[in-house]
Design goal:
10 helices; transferase; SAM-dependent_MTases_sf; alpha/beta; globular; Rossmann fold
Amino acid sequence: MIKDYWTKASSDYSDLIDEEMQKSYKDKWLNFILDEIKDLEGPLEILDIGTGPGFFPLILSSKDRHLTGIDLTEAMIEEAQKKLQAFHVDADLFIMDCQETTFPDQKFDCIICRNLVWTLPDPEKAYKEWFRILKPGGRLLIFDGSWYIHHFDPSAKEKYQALKDYVKKTYDIDVYPYGDKETNPDDYELMKITFLSDKARPAWDEKTLTSLGFTVDKVLEDYLDFLVGKEERLARGDISPVFFIKASK
């Protein structure tokens, strides 16, 4: 079901990446990431897990940074290939399961993952695998969110409803109904099978990463407020709680 979800989303997600490339978002993303890995000595081998249409390879690739992108779905890799060709960017792309990669031990200086961990059947297994392929001293940068937590946590539900009402009143926008059984039954079914749907995050991730040998260096909740601004984020109906984690091996 997860593979089908991302396959169906490939075209829409590709359009979102086009929008990010056309706006100043890409520069903010680039500066944010480079600041988090500025102490790593180059040239760097960077792995983008769940690369989708290839946003991180597009903005990060340089003579000092070689990017590899992997994704579970052929459709996403095809979209990434198109974009890399259009922007004349050289990066390696593979269809691959991030929970069981084919990379050798200690290959990458940095691993980046955006909006993927929440869908993984076994995120602890994935984190263990990423620890294996990360070099000693390497960095793991995770950007993720809790799209369904308002269905399980009363305080999260209260905050979600307040933001939903604010967005409707201020911008006349209906937010995406994550996990709503009546209006979004497919997403409701996805919510039921994803392991992290009801977990308190990023606390769960911090605990799991630490147990596997990572050192958690930074946790930043609502990181998008720093990247695009809170009001601009709300103006596009983006109200789900998101977070950034930086960890080291």
